[in-house]
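User: tokens in, sequence out, please.
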């Protein structure tokens, strides 16, 4: 917990670069680790030094604790920042860092363990007075127990893996007749995903909202919350758009959820940046789902509305520093983030690795692009295909949506397929624009978002466009065109033409 002078970032891609940026601002030397597939990756080039930690598969490189620690030792790094994913929530790695005398920039191993197993986390939270989704806190020993319990809470129910979250080993059961087969599939999925076939039960919530609270704690007992992030725009347990404030939260709900999140963090002796996830039902009841004991992908939206650099605060508390905030920090304005993936939405979101021939990244006022790529870079097929996170800030949600639309229009990528057009359709969707979306939204609106709109909607759109064009012509004739004018009407600016040459296409 001493002073940091050199930090090894045990990650790759955009998050490794993002962490190194703050490390550099704080005057730390930076050390990258890379796999054989990431020799020419942006993060490898971005650091002061870089060490190869093994072959392409992450099991053999980014997840290999001994290799990461050997690199830290060779470089003389006094701290390791794990980013997200990989070793970031691995309690045994935290202990190995301690044993090696290296500061792990994250929570203590004991806090990770208290939140890692879902049934353990649920009973810890119930003891702390945190509302959890009604259900069991112990795994079932046999299907008969599950059947009896389902009778007491009533169908529909969810069977969930006790060993871990993220939707794996999760089964909705609507009727008693379906319980036995759901029991078998949930157990076998849980076993292959977590090496643990224990399952427990929760009451099923219908298309809830996913709202999470950012918390921050220091080693001196201070713990605060930094408001929520609305993360209901997900497909197959993968977040696509995140925003803050949540369109569904009142200031009273924010205060109540924030207070509960702080209670959850304190109950497990949390230190550093953490996120408490909640499900919010149609009646706006909120229930603890799980705690992520790491910095999250979507942290930039919180940074936008609080004005805080969360990575800088992680380093501060990792060095034993105190959090200077006592009162809650009210969000200022509105921020939205979208995840840009190298994937093809029209082929069921198949990853689209390959060489980025050219790229123009959005910029301008209140636009941030956290990228892990550069022109000429080849996106490997080995890792998550996210290439960047685009985020914007504006005083109001409506302005933030317009700004995001503008920024997405600036995003041009040649060589690989991206989901940029899909992201634009989400941002423009009337329900999304109203802030009226839950965790079922992307699934329900799948066809619309892919650009195969319902025929009746196309007809309405064509009619609306015709009326609009007619009115536009009338207006032009009435006041613009002088008699005898040779002008052929308004022309797009040279800049706009340049910005969208035919070769780029228009998405
Ligand atoms: C639920 C649920 C409804 N009822 N639990 C999905 C991922 C996993 N982390 C928890 N998940 C859910 N748990 C009960 N009792 C609905 C979901 C869910 C979901 C949760 C958060 C974000 C997106 C989701 C999409 C579908 C289902």
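Assistant: Sequence out:
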């Amino acid at each position: 917990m001493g002073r940091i002078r050199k930090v090894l970032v045990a990650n790759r891609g955009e998050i490794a670069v993002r962490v190194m940026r703050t490390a550099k601002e704080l005057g730390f030397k930076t050390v990258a680790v890379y796999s054989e597939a990431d020799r020419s990756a942006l993060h490898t080039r971005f650091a002061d030094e870089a060490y190869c930690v093994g072959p392409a598969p992450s099991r053999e490189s980014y997840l290999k604790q001994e290799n990461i620690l050997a690199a830290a030792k060779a470089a003389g790094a006094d701290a390791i920042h794990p980013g997200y994913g990989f070793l970031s929530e691995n309690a045994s790695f935290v202990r190995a860092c301690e044993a090696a005398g290296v500061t792990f920039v994250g929570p203590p191993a004991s806090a990770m363990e208290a939140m890692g197993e879902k049934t353990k986390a649920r009973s810890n939270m119930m003891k702390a007075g945190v509302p959890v989704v009604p259900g069991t806190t112990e795994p079932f020993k046999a299907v008969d127990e599950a059947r009896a319990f389902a009778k007491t809470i009533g169908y529909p129910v969810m069977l969930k893996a006790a060993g871990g979250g993220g939707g794996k080993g999760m089964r909705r059961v609507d009727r008693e007749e379906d319980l036995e087969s759901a029991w078998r599939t949930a157990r076998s999925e849980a076993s292959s995903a977590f090496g643990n076939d224990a399952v427990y039960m929760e009451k099923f919530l219908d298309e809830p909202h996913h709202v999470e609270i950012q918390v921050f704690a220091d080693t001196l007992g201070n713990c605060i919350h930094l408001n929520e992030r609305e993360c209901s725009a997900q497909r197959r347990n993968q977040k696509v758009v995140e925003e803050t404030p949540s369109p569904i939260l009142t200031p009273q709900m924010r205060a109540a959820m924030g207070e509960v999140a702080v209670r959850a963090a304190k109950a497990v002796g949390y230190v550093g940046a953490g996120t408490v996830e909640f499900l919010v039902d149609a009646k706006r009841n909120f229930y603890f789902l799980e705690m992520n004991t790491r910095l999250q992908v979507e942290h930039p939206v919180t940074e936008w509305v609080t004005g805080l650099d969360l990575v800088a605060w992680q380093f501060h508390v990792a060095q034993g520093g105190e959090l200077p905030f006592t009162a809650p920090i009210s969000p200022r304005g509105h921020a939205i983030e979208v995840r840009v993936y190298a994937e093809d939405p029209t082929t069921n979101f198949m990853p689209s690795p390959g060489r980025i021939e050219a790229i123009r990244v959005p910029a301008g006022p209140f636009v941030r692009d956290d990228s892990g790529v550069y022109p000429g870079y080849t996106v490997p097929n080995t890792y998550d295909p996210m290439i960047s996170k685009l985020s914007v800030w504006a005083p109001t949600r409506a302005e933030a949506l317009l700004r995001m639309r503008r920024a997405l229009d600036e995003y041009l990528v040649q060589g690989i397929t991206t989901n940029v057009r899909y992201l634009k359709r989400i941002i423009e969707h009337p329900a999304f624009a109203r802030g009226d979306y839950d965790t079922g939204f992307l699934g329900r609106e799948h066809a619309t978002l892919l650009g195969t709109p319902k025929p009746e909607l196309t007809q309405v759109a064509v009619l609306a466009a015709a009326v609009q064009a007619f009115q536009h012509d009338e207006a032009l004739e009435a006041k613009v065109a002088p008699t005898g004018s040779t002008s052929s009407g308004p022309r797009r600016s040279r800049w706009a033409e340049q910005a969208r040459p035919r070769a780029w296409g228009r998405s």
